[in-house]
Amino acid sequence: MEILNQHLSKIRTPLGGEQVFKDECVFSFETPDSENGLFICLNTFLGFGHNHVERHYQKTGNAVYLHIKRIKKELKQDNGCGDETKKPTRLAIGVEGGFIPEEGTKYEVLDFTSIVVLPDFIEIPLPNPDLPELVQLSVASILAAQSPTRAGEASALEGTWDGEKRKVSKYADTLVQLDNDLRIPPKGWKCERCDKTDNLWLNLTDGKILCGRRFFDGSGGNNHAVDHFKETGYPLAVKLGTITPSGGDVFSYDEDDMVEDPNLAKHLAHFGINVTQMEKTEKSMIELEIDMNQRIGEWAILQESGSHLVPMYGPGYTGLSNLGNSCYMNSVMQVVFSIPDFQKIYFENAERIFDSATADPARDFTVQMAKLGHGLLSGDYSKPPPDDTVDGNISNKNQPGIKPSMFKTLIGRGHPEFSTKRQQDAQEYFLHLVNVIERHSRGRENPAECFKFEIEERLQCVKSGKVKYTKRIDYLLSLPIPLDLAVNKDEVAAFEAKKAVIEARGEKIDPNAVIRPKIPLSVCLENFAAPETLEDFFSTAINAKSTALKTTTIKTFPDYLMIQLKKFTLADDWVPKKLDISVDVPDILDLSFLRGKGLQEGEEELPDPKPDEPEFDHAVLTQLFDMGFPQEACKKALYNTENEGIEAAMNWIMEHMNDPDFADPFIPVGSLKDNTKDDFVPNIEALVTIVSMGFSQDQAKKALKETDNNVERALDWIFSHSDELEPTPMETETGSSSTVQFRDGREKYQLIAFISHMGSSTLVGHYVCHILKEGRWVIYNDNKVALSEHPPKDLAYLYVFKRL
């Protein structure tokens, strides 16, 4: 033990608030399950794979590590009865109660631990009572500590979205049950109108047992339960075979939805059914829907179900495990790391980034990006086994992928949505990723620049003919979907009529027979560039309201253009819905017609408004003043009602007449005059954090003032309000603040990747991506990576084009 004594001064015991990274290497995806196990430093409590532990030793001098090597022993499978507690109860993926596809073989896990002393990797097996007490205490505390990954998952699951959260039926407390002395047996059920013995529903009003709806493929029932509701109006029915002590599947025909019935036990007892003795014998409606989603429709098309997908291995073909509805993140990260700009910075320079890592690499965004890039692109975690096919199809067992848990925790920290395990919008995540990369690229090369472009908007006052040009930065081109311009309207109309007849019969539509509105991408682009009429436009040329024409074009064209199709909209009842459409997307795209050209010869610009004071509707202002109100109060009324008119201004005056500053001089919010006093005191730690990222103290203070001292929001504010900030001295010298650089070039592009969403909302469903590699399309479905046979380009949500 003498070798340990010389290092005791650097051995610590983790206190309650210290994080212990014992699940995964901070520089790689090595874990205790890896061939060489994981080494946890007894000073910093950071975990390292065998290839990185020496780097940490040489940098810190910390020589003593706890080595954990995990061995999995395969267990015998059960007797085939299955574990009902593992059945999915929610339409979510990878979370408790959700759908866990192809869980695979069950194992017994055995951990072998030892103390390892560097640089010679001297190993001392554990347990060992002869070890110094300090070492034993440190080891015990590390093994007992909860890892940040586990702690983050537990936190994220609090309040997590439930994909099938059902509303309590309006009939639950008022349901009338007939006193007919009917007693339902615990088994042996049969439809009272046909010979069906499965998919049976018990009406909770009169106790009738009838078969359910007929599905599109002929399976299911004969619609007798639906017919019974139409005849009697009795609303609630429970699916027999799904009843357990914890409940069952209840459908409300009147509410046309699956519902909760908190009084189900009482309602069943009315017919002699004791729920404590019931066992589940049929699939729930969620299980049936999951099965259906896997087999048919959009899910099957986008995942290329039924195709004999050939698995791919090696550099660039590594999958990402789904960490609980993280497929939106997985798809975006696969796409961005297929782009050379990201590969150059985060993969080719990975070793340099690791060598220059901070004392806390787990919280260093650049380190974690390099770690993810190396994991995806090195091929270290994507090696072909001897046999990886099951009936010719790709399997999960030999394509485990890597688990980006540390990265997911880091990029989601402080974000109200991306820090949870709820499903999110891939488009919003892409913009969030760009924002975070921008924060951490001050003074260094920014790979997200390859997506950056400039939008040009032209406003023309109809009455004066004068124009105003404005520009803004964007990283993604969002295109509305003009459904009225579909090229197959007649076919869609005929299908909708047929669909109405089928649904009226209580049957379901075959998803394979669905005819979607078909719209060429060119039509979406032309619609984007078409002039838009703006009513109530205040024209500075005539100092009055006018009508304006707004035209949007692209001023600069990036190396890589991300296009979003706005498939998600609000229905008339304000419920989010997804447009079920097919968009004809070409492989080659010419966008030269979208090029913005700025002020043209013969055009006259609209005059700028007077500084520090907005324009008012002088006719209304005069009316108010003639009524006897103070002139400054009249200005405030028009300013706060945005010149809406005399009625709105009068209402504002009536509401604020008793304000102590009613007649005080009018000072527009944010004007130079409004900065006469400033009592704001910034949070010192937050101020230091922002300044350390390359911003000036004045910039940091203004951002913190606008965001109530919230450092995360302040950084977001800075990047979205850069035009409102005074430049830093360095920026003034280089001119970088006044002239933003763009990578402009020719307007011709090739499609190289697309991300598809399946599901009715961005908050449910699943994302996959397809990437063009070496002339072949490859599908990335979380950890599954395979050659694509039928890339569904027409059903995607996000598209990435590379400039030719």
TrEMBL record:
UniProt xrefs under SUPFAM superfamilies: Cysteine proteinases, RING/U-box, UBA-like
UBA domain location: 615-656, 675-721
Domain of life: Eukaryota
Pfam families registered for this protein in UniProt: UBA, UCH, zf-UBP, zf-UBP_var
Enzyme nomenclature, EC number: 3.4.19.12
UniProt keyword annotations, A-Z: Hydrolase, Metal-binding, Protease, Repeat, Thiol protease, Ubl conjugation pathway, Zinc, Zinc-finger
Ranges for domain UBP-type: 167-275
Catalytic activity: Thiol-dependent hydrolysis of ester, thioester, amide, peptide and isopeptide bonds formed by the C-terminal Gly of ubiquitin (a 76-residue protein attached to proteins as an intracellular targeting signal)
USP domain sequence ranges: 318-804
Classification via PANTHER family: UBIQUITIN CARBOXYL-TERMINAL HYDROLASE (PTHR21646), UBIQUITIN CARBOXYL-TERMINAL HYDROLASE 14 (PTHR21646:SF10)
Family: Belongs to the peptidase C19 family.
Full protein name: Ubiquitin carboxyl-terminal hydrolase
Gene, per the UniProt record: LOC106464967
